[in-house]
Amino acid sequence: MFAFAAEITSHLNFLNLKLQGEQNLVSDLYIHLKAFISKLALFLEQVQANNFNHFQQCKVFTAEATAEFPTSFSCEIIKDLQLQFQQRFSDLDSKAEEVRLCQNPFEADVTSCPDELQLEVIELQANDLLRDKFKIGLVGFYQFLPKKDFPNVKTFASRYLSIFGTTYLCEETFSRMKYVKNNLRTNLFDDNLRSMLMLGTTNIKPGMSANLASRKQFHHSH
Description:
Blueprint: H1 2-19, H2 26-48, H3 56-64, H4 71-88, H5 90-94, H6 96-103, H7 115-125, H8 128-133, H9 138-144, H10 151-161, H11 168-180, H12 190-201, H13 208-213
Helix pairs in contact: 2-4, 7-10, 11-12
C-alpha cells in the first residue's frame, strides 16, 4: 500500500512541476491536466489487471512477495483522484472549446465558435501570412495580429492569455519579498516596497549601456 501511495504521489509531483513556471498559459496547463486525467484512466485499467508497468516498486513487490497485492486499495485511490480532478477542474472543462480556439484558431471549427468571432476566424484561417506568424508562439502571434482587422479575436484571446493558471507568480513574489522586507530595513513604506518588488520580479532589462552612451559628461565640474 505504501509503495503504491508513494509512486502515485511521484506521478502527481511530476504533474505539479509541469504546472509551475511563469511562462505557462492556461492552454498549456489544460494540456497537462488532460494528459494526466488520461494517465489515471490508463493506470486504473492496468492496475485492475495487475499490470504495474508504471509503478516499478509495486511491480517488484508483486514479483517477490508471496502475499497478494492490495489491488482494490490502489484502484480506490485512482478513482478518488479521478473524482477530485473532475470536480476541481469542471469549470475549465466547460470552457474547453474556447481554450482550444485560443490555443489554435487555425484548426478551430468555425461553426462551434462564438457568433461574434466566426467571420474573423474565417478571415484568419484564410490568411497564409498569419498562419506563418503563428509559428512564433501564441503570445507573439496575438501581439502581431492587427487589432483593426481582428478586434473580437484579440479581445477574446487577451482574456485567456491573462488568466493566472496557478499561484506560482504570487508565491515567487512573496519569496522575493522575504529578502526585501527584513528587520534591517526600518524605513520601508508601502510605496518603496511596491517599487522594489516590481524591480525584483520584472523581466525587463535596463538599457544601461544606451543610457550611459547618451551622456557626454558624467560629472559636472565645480
